[in-house]
Amino acid sequence: MERLTIIGAGNLGVSIAQGIIKAGLLKPDQVTLTRRSLDKLEPLRTSDFTVTTNNAEAVQQSSLVMICVQPKQALAVVKEIAPDLKEGKHVLISTVTGISTEEIASQLDGKQIPIVRAMPNTAIAIASSMTCICSHQATQQQVDAVIRLFNGLGKTLVVEERLMRASTVLAASGIAFFMRFLRASTQGGIQLGFDFEDAQAIAVQTAKGAALLLQEHGLHPEMEIDRVTTPEGCTIAGLNEMEHQGLSSAIIKGLVASFEKINNIRK
């Protein structure tokens, strides 16, 4: 990659740009960020990023073009930049929820532009994203290049395109879902006597430890739970009360509701 353009530098686009620099994959002067209003990008301009409202010019100067706009804007943006995309030069990456590679390709005026859909999450800003990707008309070499990019920003999993909506819910929306659980744990800790800072520190480190245990041991969560619970103990009492209150059911229902919403995301 000689140069990357990120079209639609909102929260996710800026997080990706920051993660790329933090990981040492590119230098700030190799990244162009576009947005209709540049006010919020001014701090990035002073960090040597190129910022502009001119999508066409930004695309012409880059080999990798990443679309990070809202779903209702995505196809219009692809159509806008289609004249500036060149076969054999550009690879188009879309992080847009609910827009298929086929829909994107339909806006390219018949050009055979490699398309990679990527669904990262905002932890990409600290190189800790879970990113699922699929591709259309891309060579393995081109897909591998995109995988290397996102592997530098966390972990990457190649999936079938039919699973991209589910990836959005589990990985991208999942950040918010886990944040809500951490907020609840922190609030509970405060009720038990800790101040906010200590309660949050304990909740965050405990969540990190739980995730790393699964990652390192590769076991089913219930097997790790069994290591903590003892007969008539406080852990099993807490777990049973959470389940009586519908913890697992509420999480699954929330994931399904989020998944179903994607069908109407552009309406």
Question: Can you summarize this structure?
Answer:
The protein is α/β, with parallel strands linked by helices and 267 residues long. The protein is 51% helix and 14% strand.
Identify the notable features of this structure and list them briefly:
ProC C-terminal domain-like fold, eight-stranded mixed sheet, alpha/beta, 2 domains, 267 residues, single chain, elongated, Rossmann fold, 11 helices
Give a written overview of the molecule.
The chain is α/β, with parallel strands linked by helices and 267 residues long. It has 11 helices and 8 strands. It has helices spanning 11-22, 42-45, 55-60, 71-81, 101-105, 140-151, 164-191, 196-217, 221-228, 234-244, 247-262, and strands at residues 4-7, 31-34, 50-52, 64-67, 91-94, 115-119, 129-136, 154-158. An 8-stranded mixed sheet has the order 3-2-1-4-5-6-7-8, with helices on both faces. Helix 1 (11-22) links the parallel strand 1 and strand 2 (31-34). Helix 7 (164-191) packs across helix 8 and helix 7 (164-191) runs antiparallel to helix 11.
Round the mean pLDDT to the nearest integer and report it: 93
* Strand order in the largest sheet: 3-2-1-4-5-6-7-8
Distance between the termini: 35 Å
CATH homologous group name of the largest domain? NAD(P)-binding Rossmann-like Domain
Q: Which consecutive residue ranges, at least 5 long each, have pLDDT under 50?
A: none
How would you sum up the major sheet? 8 strands, mixed
Structural class: alpha/beta
Helix content: 40-55%
Overall structural domain count:
2
